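FORM 7B: Structural annotation worksheet

SECTION A. Query
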Amino acid sequence: MTVTAESGAAKAQQTKSNGGKTEVKILMLHGMFKLFSSPGIFSGPSGHGLRLRILSDSLAIACASISLTLNHLAHSHSLLGYTQSGPLFHAKTRALEKLLIKTLAPISLLPVLIYPTGPNRLLPKDIPGYQPPADGQDDDDWQPDTWAWFRKDDATGAYRYFDEGMAVIASTIRDAGGIDGVCGFSQGGATTGAVVAAMESDRPLPDGAAGDWARGLREANGERPLKFAVSYSGFFGPVDMLKWCYDPKIKTPTLHYIGSLDTVVDESRSQGLIDRCEDPMAVVHPGGHHVPVSKEWVMPLAGFIKQHAQEAQPKAGL
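SECTION B. Predicted structure
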């Protein structure tokens, strides 16, 4: 089930129509999808700019395998990662959503997945591998549906526009009437780590403006910490502004998915996030940089949600 903004009366009616099932609201934070680049593919709609070709998961995995075994192909074919949007992430994870609803229905849990879009729109020139048109004129009519939760400054490594991304997340939580968990992919997985840490009631927040985004998240969720967090191909943010999110370790239950063929986010970066969580669960799937949606890989997620969504919610400040 996917949530949309509704009035209080509509929400009450929705709860009634759920047949007595308990809603488990999960914030879904998009990240990267796979792009395939080769000579001739990086061309814009009118012969210049940039065209992005999205591969199916199976083809992307096959290409990753080829690149690992035939190094000479790396000069003409490569897997890249890039950001997307809430609707695109929803489209890619519909099978996961349906399986969760079906699996959790017998225990009267109804997962409600909420898909916001990051506020930072990226232009074609921001995309790795972009080649400007030969005539020096950008194609202003082409605006790819590519968004980010924050931007990394290549010169300093700092995260820019991070507060803006968190403001959108806080607004989404508020509009949903609060959430129970958060799930993110790639950059969304990194953002998930910061969100779940910031919402832990007993974690000290930075004073002043540095902690305002975290206070906004807590207020939006009624000062309630999250029950669980899930990261797909996520990573920890090695920036000074987020050090307090990982020290002490994140104590909220976390589940981490890692693709054994992921060539976008190195396993050591994902392990960095895992190492900063207390008693984390980790699942390694035989794929690349994507969210696995087959039953085999959704079942651990369903079991994880079942375990933690039904646990008593700790009181704020305890």
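SECTION C. Observations
Residues 104 and 306 are 7 Å apart (CA to CA). Confidence is low (pLDDT under 50) at residues 4-17, 33-82, 313-318.

SECTION D. Sign-off
Analyst initials: ____
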